[in-house]
Design brief:
The protein is an alpha/beta fold and 266 residues long. The chain is built from 8 helices and 9 strands.
Length: 266
């Protein structure tokens, strides 16, 4: 059976992040990708110049169209922007009994532009975190979800992962890419055990779409029947290789994209 994953997220017109990055990731990892677009952004490698929200009822219509026809094995959720859209997604997930939900709580773009309305944060916490198989915040996002300072060390990262787990998630992958030191360290916590993933930092400015790509890669693994730990490990390996190969691309004048097809392009 063909593994299928769907991304519920915003569109990046420069194709480095959002649904475009997710669909590239699904394809690179051997998974058929479908999409539900929640917002359109006028965006390039230098920043976001505009956001056009998709009406909540049309987001719901896209969800119904995809799930009524495709055997979806995993769902990646990214940019949602508004509370009404978050609520429509939550209702849609329940209506179709969606499994393997990977929630990337996208709040700010790599360029620093805000992508989630401040008043929507509580709705995200209430409606989507409890429905997630795993939540994948970076350090600023984890701090924003908990209303606390950004974690400065690994002990604080683990404590924040536990705090997000207490909001109802089944597991939390807290990402240390915004941290300091020679290694980028992530922690996967499911309430029973902590798995530490450490990779050496790669010197490149081309990191646009890293979070989108990682969460999409985890969803791809889950759609293929991998358990969460295995899907996360393979996703980390894929993203690390995509970052390492990013400078082989010459795209844009700001933070360029990862090389999603590093394994297949000559």
């Amino acid at each position: 059976m063909t593994p299928i994953a769907v991304t519920i997220a915003g569109s990046d017109s420069s194709a480095g992040a959002g649904i475009q990055a997710d669909l590239k990731t699904f394809a690179a990892l051997g998974v058929y990708g479908a999409s539900v677009i929640t917002a359109l952004t006028a965006q390039n490698t230098r920043g976001v110049s505009g956001i056009h929200d998709v009406p909540a009822e049309f987001v719901a219509a896209q969800i119904d169209a995809v799930f009524s026809d495709l055997a979806v094995g995993a769902v990646k959720i990214g940019m949602l922007a508004r509370a009404a859209v978050i609520e429509a997604v939550a209702v849609g997930l329940d209506r179709w009994k969606a499994q393997n939900v990977v929630l990337d709580p996208v709040m700010v773009a790599t360029s620093g532009d805000r992508l989630l309305a401040p008043d929507a944060v509580e709705t995200l916490k209430r409606e989507l975190i409890p429905r997630a198989r795993v939540v994948t915040p970076n350090l600023p996002e984890a701090a924003a979800l908990l209303g606390t300072d950004i974690a400065a060390d690994e002990d604080a990262m683990q404590a924040q992962a536990e705090g997000i787990l207490a909001l109802g998630a089944k597991a939390v992958l807290i990402k240390g890419g915004h941290g300091a030191g020679p290694y980028s360290v992530d922690f996967l916590f499911d309430g029973a055990r902590v798995t530490r993933y450490a990779v050496k930092r790669i010197a490149t400015r081309n990191t646009h779409g890293t979070g989108c790509t990682l969460s999409a890669a985890i969803a791809a693994g889950l759609a293929k029947g991998q358990d969460l730990a295995a899907a996360t490990r393979r996703a980390k390996d894929y993203v690390t290789d995509a970052i390492a190969a990013a400078d082989r691309l010459a795209v844009g004048q700001g933070h360029g994209p990862l090389h999603h097809f590093h394994a297949t392009w000559a």
